[in-house]
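Give me structure tokens for this 262-residue protein.
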Amino acid sequence: MSAAEILYREEGPVGVVTFDRPRVLNAFRRSMFASLLETLEAATADPLLRAIVLTGSGRAFCAGIDLKELAARAERGAAVERSTLEAIQQITRTIVLREKIVVAAVNGPAVGFGAELAVAADIRIAAEEATFAFPEVQRALFATGGSTHLLPRLVGLGRALDWLVSGRTVSAEEALAAGLVTRLVPRKDVLEVALEEARRIAANAPIPVGRIKRLLRGSFDSELERGLRQEVEHTLACLDTEDFSEGLRSFFRGRSPRFTGR
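Here you go.
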């Protein structure tokens, strides 16, 4: 993996993580998950940092998992190992359970894993053109990153069920109205507004800020761990189906999938 695929810099007490594969809308290849996890674990453990901003290069936040790499691995009989899924879940644990505030600067489409990252974040600043989608079911996959647990607690059970089982694209305006997005701003201002929010938080006393996050998160996330474990098992089960192979084939051939339930 190119070291440039996950960029990290610090602006005073704020760490900025940028997903940097703009040609493929910042889709994550397998090795990037470990790199992002390592970056987040180091940043959230740094006593000099007070907040973290996540964003993407170019016109997208993150288009999810790189399906070309996934298809190549599927042909070799190793679509996604348990270790990769557990790295994804550990990213969620690091964002949700550490006391540092994480702000998602959603500068464009957030799809699959990208939408899951946004859901895991504490605050979401989105471009007016941003979109959110959980399209896993359209490829016979299963949602990960804690989205089955976290999303209904943000937008309600009905909306979460709609978004997760339809796989449809949700506009920034709908996401704002549902409570997923904190603020909508012009695309050119997304990162700066997110940084301003992070700096504002960073200027406050870190002990009460961290304790507020821990208390608020703990008030409804006591079952997060069970949800994360169950997502891994359901994802592995979905990967072991004929429909999963059909989902990949149809995606690359530009046609609608013909699922059989096998």
